[in-house]
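Re: the pair you flagged

First of the two:
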Amino acid sequence: MAHVVTRNCIGCKDMACVPVCPMECFHIGPQMLYIDPDDCIDCEACVVECPVEAIFQEDDIPSEFAQDIALNARMVKIHPNQTEV
C-alpha cells in the first residue's frame, strides 16, 4: 500500500517530506503535493516530516479524505516530479 497526501496539504508546500523520500515519489501541483502510488514503498519517512499531518497510509486514511487516494493517482500523471526543495 502507498501513502497518500490529503487536502490538508493545500497551500502548505513546506516540502520537508520531499527530500526524505528514497523513491522520489512526490509530484507538485499548483496547490499541493501528491505521492505516486506506483512508486511509494510505504517507508513512512515522509509522514513524520509533514508539518500539517497531511500524509496517511492508504489503509489508514480518514474517511473524509478517501477521495484523495484517487486524486493522488490521477494528479501524479499530469504534474511534474518534485525531488528537491
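Second of the two:
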Amino acid sequence: MDILIVGVGGQGTLLASRVLGKYALDKGYDVKLSEVHGMAQRGGSVMTYVRIGEKIASPIIDEGSADFILAFEKLEALRYAHYLKPDGKILYSTQEIMPMPVVTGAAEYPQGIEKKLTGTGVDALSLALQAGNSKAANSVMLGALCKKLNFDRDAFEAALLSCIPQKTIDMNKTAFALGYAAVE
C-alpha cells in the first residue's frame, strides 16, 4: 500500500508518517518512509511517502501510483492529487491555510476545491478544537484514516500514543476517536 501524506509545515505530517510506519512494523510488514520538507519551516508544503508491504525496496511513490492520499489541508490535496492512481482515494482536512502568495496579495486562494477532489473531507480543525487543541487535527485525520483503511483500531491508536508526548495522550485519544467517528 502506497500512502502519500501532504500538508503544510507544522501540521504533523511527519508524525503521521511515523505513526503509520510504527503500525505497519507492529503488524509485521516492511515499511519505507521518505520525507520532502521544502520550505516547511515557513509554512510551505510537506510531502511524506509511506510504502507498506511484504518487501519494499524504495521509499518513493511515483506520480499516478498512490493508493491513498492523506491531506492535512485541502489545497495540498488538490496540489498532489496527480499522485493518486485511478482507483485511489483521498482523505483531506477541509482546513484552509493561506500560502504566502495569498498572504501577500499576489494570488487568491482557489475556490471550489472540494468539487475538484474525489475524496472525503473532514473538518479536522473543529474536531481538534473539540478535543482540546487545534494541534490535535493530525490525530483527527489519523482516526479517520484508520477507519477508511479498515486498520485495526486498537493497534493503530496504540501506535499513535507511542509516538506522542505523555502529557497529550488524553487529548489525542479524544481527537482520534472523533476522527474515526467522522467518516464512514
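Residues 17 and 50 are 6 Å apart (CA to CA).

-B.
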